[in-house]
């Protein structure tokens, strides 16, 4: 399995889109961090970029790549190996190379220019998001019949998590603000990996303000390590569950 | 302050000149030695563990501990009472006073005394550490005052001063009390260079105390840093306030304060840097507010305050308020969130800055919305509000925001 | 070597394979023919395990293939369209396949050399023409000297020289007692290669006969005329020959 991952990884490292992705991230990181001379402001801009770019690019790119590799995957499957192993290898190679792009593009500038805890949390968060949205890309690939539909689904899924979901949640909070909805809100957040990633960063950058709200939600959840643990746990599930589903479906899929 | 100190020293110096030195050890009662001593004598206490308490000093003597002799109140008693003027006490460990709700149990109590100096003492695990009542010209210096209070009701204060005047509280290290330093009806006094941490309520608490000042102190991780209430002419300079976290946690809490100055302080990582209500004519300048939840909360009951030439950096929210009326002047501050331009390059932005963000108002009405803070959506809301202000108080604005950080 | 029993597969309402029974033996060169959508690809993919059958069994070397990927060690597959990761070189692709099939030490690199791939092994797959990619595919299929070859349109896109090399290779392997299963639209390419013909239509097996039998029945020698004759005949009489 490691062999296939290795070759996929090496192939993707030379992929033009990945190189452009890395370069764009690096340029953005250096500019944003350079503008503010090592304050948290640049970090916040980078957070916004991470939360928008990583899901969209990762889902789209991985889905397209998987569809383009369909014939090659078939060839690999005609070898005496298990289907799940091939798929897992493809996933591993993809997730690793996209993570590498993120680490080089965002992680490296951050480590050089702003080596604080929050920066490292952002790097880890970005890598987690990459793994999650590669999983989702894989799931889309496994579920879709053809490439066109798959790409459509990838766009919808990534936009849903980056934009639409928050809008729905905002509507929910405003509509039911007179009721005790704290728990429901926390549960809802677990349904969106982008929000979870954002909250992980929020707990780094804004503990002071989060502690200022009365009410159980912010005291128990956001104000303590419980919040971080919850977010990391959910993000873990977001990586594993789509991947597991994709493997399961792929085992019985007709190619 | 140096002048004040020199005068104090001059007053205290003659005491030691014609002195006899009395030595005492664990075997005998210190009270006997103290009673024998004549004014100006020096009593030296040998190292050891003294289970002696309610020791009253009635003559102006110097009491010196050798290698920190320990006076232990066994969690039942008070320890030292200084009831004479001109007493000097140093190098003694005082520990384990009783806890009572009837009387305020103190490690060292100054009663109607003047020109008393308590220095280099360790006051450990006491309800009240050093308690000054009705005293004047006293110096409390270089003491370590530690306790481990967990709730407000049972605990006392580290340095407690009541109805006193001209005190100097300097370079003490105070932690684990209800209030680190407490002033009630204390005037003309100075609090300098103390470190007050982990106190349950406030690092420093002023009530009805006028014409006082505190400088170069560090307040960290207390219930709140400093509370200044119902006082006038308080000067607060060069202090550091950090890590006061919680829904009623502030760097400084100002309540009904007037004609005061808050300058050159640093407020870092507090839930709220400065909270002010009912306060007027306060000059807040050249302070640094960084990484606080809210840098300042200025209630509508405040008027005539001037907030200028401060740096606001990396705060979640810069300013919060509860009304739309604004009778305070904001000018020449540096706001890192300012996104305006400076066409004439004079270092002052050409469009005003509104320090109250719409999301801070929104989240105050519905705290649950904080879970969406810093999301793409909320950024859009903030941007939209910047273009067409509708919720934020338009009068609260800095017409001359700086484009470069002040070097403070 | 390959035994297929009552193999049935449908995609939705469409029946791609309908109760296929087949038995293929060593040394045979079997041509799999049929119009588009007749189930050729589905049949091949079923044998390769890429399509999971609904009913029926596929038995290879006496072993049912369900959930046992190890049987594929006996198969060399050359796909119709060879698409490879863009930035891998020919050498890397071959290395990768070898890595996957670790333990198979006897390597048949004849085609690698005769196609001249060893001279361009550092070229990236992206830069190769369709024909060259076909050569790489062929190379991979023959690399491990398996007992069974499944070649899906092997000659499409190959230049005449390469075409001949491949045909010679197929014939040689056949002679060594291997089973070769070929689909092709270019019937003339199969002339002189095939020993058996399998004809599928609408997912059903129309006939499975040796080339001699067919020549005898039709009195023709050329493969495409044989097929044309049978089809017109079958059409007219509406019967299946088997």
The tally of structural domains of chain B comes to: 1
| Unreliable parts of chain A | none
Tell the overall outline of chain B: elongated
Assess the beta-strand content of chain A as a share of residues: under 5%
Q: What is the 3D form of chain A?
A: globular
Tally of strands of chain B:
38
Mean of all residue-level pLDDT scores of chain B = 90
Total DSSP helices of chain A: 12
The biggest sheet of chain A, with number of strands, parallel, antiparallel or mixed sense and barrel status, is:
none
Mean pLDDT across the residues of chain A is 89
Question: What helical percentage do the residues of chain B reach?
Answer: under 10%
Approximately how much beta-strand content do the residues of chain B carry?
Answer: 35-45%
Biggest sheet layout of chain B: 25 strands, parallel
Overall CATH class of chain B: Mainly Beta
**Tally of individual domains of chain A:** 1
What is the CATH topology assignment of chain B? Pectate Lyase C-like
| Model regions low in confidence, pLDDT < 50 over at least 5 residues of chain B | none
The string of secondary-structure elements of chain A, in order, is HHHHHHHHHHHH
Descriptive report:
The complex is a heterotrimer of chains A (255), B (408) and C (242). Chain A contains 12 helices and no strands. Chain A is mainly α and 255 residues long. Chain A starts with a helix and ends with a helix. With 408 residues, chain B is mainly beta. Chain B has one domain: Pectate Lyase C-like (3 Solenoid), CATH 2.160.20. In chain B, the strands form 2 sheets. Chain B has a 25-stranded parallel beta sheet that branches. In chain B, strands 3-6-9-12-15-18-21-24-27-29-32-35-38 form a 13-stranded parallel beta sheet, with no helix packed on it. In chain B, 50% of the residues are buried. Chain B has 4 helices and 38 strands. Chain C has a single domain (2-237), classed as 3-Layer(aba) Sandwich (Rossmann fold), CATH 3.40.50. Chain C is built from 8 helices and 10 strands. In chain C, the strands form 2 sheets. Chain C has a 6-stranded mixed beta sheet, with helices on both faces. In chain C, strands 2-1-4-5 form a 4-stranded antiparallel beta sheet, covered by helices on one side. Chain C is globular. Chain A binds chain B through residues 36, 39-41, 44, 47-48, 51-52, 162-163, 166-167, 169-170, 173-174, 177, 181-182, 185-186, 189, 195, 198-199, 201-202, 205-215, 217-219, 222, and chain B through 245-247, 249, 269-272, 291-294, 313-314, 316-317, 336-337, 363, 365-379.
């Amino acid at each position: 399995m490691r062999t296939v991952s290795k070759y996929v990884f090496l192939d993707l490292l030379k992929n033009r889109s990945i190189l452009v992705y890395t370069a764009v991230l690096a340029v953005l990181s250096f500019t944003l961090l350079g503008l503010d001379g090592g304050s948290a402001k640049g970090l916040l801009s980078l957070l916004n970029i991470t939360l928008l770019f990583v899901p969209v690019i990762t889902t789209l790119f991985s889905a397209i790549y998987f569809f383009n590799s369909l014939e090659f995957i078939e060839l690999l499957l005609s070898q005496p190996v298990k289907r799940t192993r091939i798929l897992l290898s493809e996933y591993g190679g993809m997730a690793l190379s996209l993570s590498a792009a993120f680490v080089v593009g965002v992680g490296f500038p951050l480590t050089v220019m702003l080596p604080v805890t929050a920066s490292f949390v952002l790097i880890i968060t970005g890598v987690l998001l990459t793994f999650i949205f590669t999983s989702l890309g894989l799931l889309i690939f496994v579920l879709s019949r053809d490439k066109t539909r798959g790409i459509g689904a990838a766009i919808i899924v990534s936009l849903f998590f980056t934009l639409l979901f928050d809008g729905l949640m905002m509507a929910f909070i405003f509509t039911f603000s007179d009721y005790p909805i704290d728990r429901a809100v926390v549960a809802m957040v677990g349904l969106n990996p982008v929000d979870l990633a954002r909250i992980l960063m929020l707990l780094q950058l804004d503990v002071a303000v989060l502690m200022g709200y009365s009410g159980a939600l912010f005291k128990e959840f956001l104000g303590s390590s419980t919040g971080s643990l919850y977010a990391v746990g959910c993000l873990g599930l977001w990586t594993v569950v789509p991947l597991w589903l994709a493997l399961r479906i792929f085992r019985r899929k007709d190619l | 302050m140096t002048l004040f100190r020199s005068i104090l020293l001059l007053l205290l110096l003659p005491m030691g000149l014609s002195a006899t030195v009395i030595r005492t050890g664990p075997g005998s009662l210190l009270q006997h030695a103290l009673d024998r001593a004549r004014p100006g004598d020096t009593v030296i206490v040998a190292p050891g563990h003294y289970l002696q308490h309610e020791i009253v000093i009635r003559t102006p003597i110097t009491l010196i501990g050798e290698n920190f002799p320990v006076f232990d109140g066994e969690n039942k008693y008070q320890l030292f009472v200084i009831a004479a003027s001109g007493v000097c006490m140093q190098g003694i460990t005082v520990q384990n006073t009783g806890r009572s709700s009837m009387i305020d149990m103190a490690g060292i109590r100054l009663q109607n005394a003047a020109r008393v100096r308590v220095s280099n003492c360790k006051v450990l695990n006491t309800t009240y550490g050093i308690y000054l009542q009705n005293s004047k010209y006293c110096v409390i210096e270089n003491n370590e005052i530690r306790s481990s209070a967990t709730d407000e009701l049972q605990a006392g204060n580290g340095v407690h001063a009541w109805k006193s005047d001209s005190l100097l509280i300097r370079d003490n290290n105070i932690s684990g009390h209800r209030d680190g330093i407490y002033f009630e009806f204390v005037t003309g006094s100075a609090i300098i260079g103390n470190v007050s941490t982990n106190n349950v309520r406030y690092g420093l608490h002023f009530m009805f105390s006028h014409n006082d000042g505190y400088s170069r102190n560090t307040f960290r991780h207390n219930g709140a840093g400093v509370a200044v209430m119902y006082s006038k002419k308080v000067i607060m300079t060069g202090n550091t306030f950090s890590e006061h976290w919680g829904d009623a946690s502030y760097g400084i809490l100002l309540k009904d304060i007037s004609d005061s100055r808050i300058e050159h302080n640093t407020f870092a990582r507090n839930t709220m840097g400065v909270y002010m209500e009912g306060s007027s004519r306060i000059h807040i300048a050249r302070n640094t507010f960084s990484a606080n939840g809210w840098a300042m909360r200025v209630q509508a009951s405040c008027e005539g305050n001037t907030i200028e030439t401060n740096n606001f950096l990396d705060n979640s929210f810069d300013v919060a308020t509860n009304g739309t009326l604004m009778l305070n002047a904001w000018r020449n501050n540096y706001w890192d969130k300012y996104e305006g331009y400076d066409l004439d390059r004079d270092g002052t932005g050409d469009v005003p800055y509104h320090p109250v963000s719409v999301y801070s108002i929104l989240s105050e009405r519905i705290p649950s919305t904080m879970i969406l803070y810093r999301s793409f959506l909320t950024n859009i809301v903030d941007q939209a509000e910047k273009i067409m202000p509708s919720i934020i108080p338009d009068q609260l604005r800095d017409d001359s925001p700086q484009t470069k950080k002040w070097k403070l | 070597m390959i035994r297929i029993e009552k193999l049935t597969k449908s995609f939705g309402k469409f029946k791609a394979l309908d109760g296929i029974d087949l038995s293929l033996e060593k040394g045979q060169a079997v041509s799999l023919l049929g119009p588009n959508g007749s189930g050729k690809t589905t049949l091949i993919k079923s044998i390769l395990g890429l399509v999971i059958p609904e009913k029926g069994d596929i038995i290879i070397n006496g072993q049912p293939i369900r959930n046992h990927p190890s049987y594929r060690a006996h198969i060399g597959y050359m796909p119709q369209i060879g698409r490879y990761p863009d930035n891998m070189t020919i050498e890397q692709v071959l290395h990768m396949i070898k890595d996957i099939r670790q333990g198979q030490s006897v390597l048949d690199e004849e085609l690698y050399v005769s196609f001249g791939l060893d001279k361009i092994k550092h070229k990236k797959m992206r830069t190769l023409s369709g024909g060259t990619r076909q050569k790489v595919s062929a190379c991979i299929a023959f690399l491990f000297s398996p007992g069974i070859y499944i070649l899906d349109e092997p000659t499409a896109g190959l230049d005449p020289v390469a075409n001949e090399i491949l045909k010679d290779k197929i014939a040689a392997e056949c002679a060594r007692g291997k089973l070769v299963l070929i689909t092709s639209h270019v019937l003339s390419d199969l002339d002189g290669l095939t020993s058996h013909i399998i004809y599928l239509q609408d997912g059903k097996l129309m006939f499975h006969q040796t080339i001699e039998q067919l020549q005898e029945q039709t009195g023709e020698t050329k493969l495409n005329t044989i097929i044309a004759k049978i089809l017109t005949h079958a059409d007219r009489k509406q019967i299946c020959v088997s």
